[in-house]
Write a structure and sequence with these properties.
The chain has 298 residues and is mainly β. 0% of the residues lie in helices and 44% in strands. It has a domain at 30-91 and 102-232: Regulator of chromosome condensation 1/beta-lactamase-inhibitor protein II (Methylamine Dehydrogenase, Chain H, 7 Propeller).
Length: 298
């Protein structure tokens, strides 16, 4: 069995076929995704392994760079730049560029919907949870985030005076958010709420660069947790932000604090709050999960 372990729980992942010289071991995790009693991990060797409810995986004939998803479907970026999905979500239809293919830089997957960022262009596929709002497909974006019933895209910096605006779609967040959420350098979306990390230009509005601004549908933006942060991510009902490896987590849309899966006292490089299960990668490269880990282990 392959082993992925740290404090709080032990994850046992199926060992890959012996015909390929890749190994699974602690200290070698580069990407992790969590769902409800499920988790998938990608290792520096390119191997992908899943556990709990997510026992399937894409073809092991290629290596992988990252993984995203939940119990409604999972997708991984291959080392060839393609996106490969399983468990309830189809592979995306990647348009022919007429030249060398443009690799996928990032993916977001939630509840049967997937979106990918190729250069600065966004393409989405799978379940249609847009609630009639136009999904922002186009060539001017730097990030995409999906929640249970909503999604948001972050516009790329196109020159002086650019506001780094965020545009949203779906039933949980209205599309008008692009008129009031700006100066974003990073983005996350959870149940009924979006949050951004503010860029350096936010100081012109009296806001702290590196601070967190959040909003719900129909609301003006409001300050998130105190402090400055390097990264932000979200699960079904939880946000987490990282500052120097330290994790700060809080519930979405004013849900009770006890709905948050509090991470262990570790320095993290990456987090996925997931659903009932949360997972992360420590700065040492070890993987750890917490919350509902009952179904995680083979």
């Amino acid at each position: 069995m392959g082993l992925l372990a740290l404090s709080g729980c032990i994850l046992l992942f199926a060992q890959p076929p012996p015909r390929v010289e890749r190994e699974l071991h602690p200290g070698n995790v580069v990407s992790v995704a969590a769902g409800d009693g499920s988790a998938c991990a990608v290792y520096a060797s390119g191997w992908i392994a899943c556990s709990g409810n997510a026992t399937d995986h894409p073809s092991l004939d290629r290596g992988y760079k990252s993984v995203a998803g939940d119990d409604d479907g999972w997708c991984a970026v291959g080392d060839d730049g393609g996106v490969y999905c399983w468990g309830g979500i189809p592979d995306p239809a990647v348009p022919d560029t007429g030249a060398d293919p443009v690799g996928v830089d990032a993916i977001a997957v939630a509840h049967g919907t997937g979106c990918m960022l190729r250069g600065t262009a966004i393409t989405c596929w799978g379940a249609d949870d847009s609630n009639g709002d136009p999904i922002p497909v186009g060539p001017y974006f730097s990030g995409i985030a999906l929640g249970p019933t909503e999604g948001c895209a972050m516009e790329t910096d196109r020159g002086p005076g650019d506001l780094g605006q965020v545009f949203c779609f779906g039933s949980g967040l209205d599309a008008r958010s692009g008129t009031r959420v700006d100066h974003a350098s990073a983005l996350a979306v959870s149940l009924g709420e979006g949050c951004v990390i503010l860029d350096d230009l936010a100081a012109n509005d009296g806001r702290e660069p590196g601070g967190v601004d959040c909003w719900t549908s129909g609301s003006a933006s409001f300050a998130g947790p105190a402090g400055t942060f390097d990264a932000i991510t979200a699960g079904d009902w939880t946000f987490c932000a990282l500052s120097g490896g330290g994790a700060t987590c809080w519930p979405s849309d004013h849900l009770p604090e006890d709905t948050v899966n509090t991470p262990p006292d570790e320095a993290f490089a990456q987090l996925d709050p997931g659903g009932t299960t949360s997972c992360g990668i420590t700065t040492a490269g070890d993987g750890v999960c917490w919350g509902d880990t009952t179904g995680i282990g083979l």
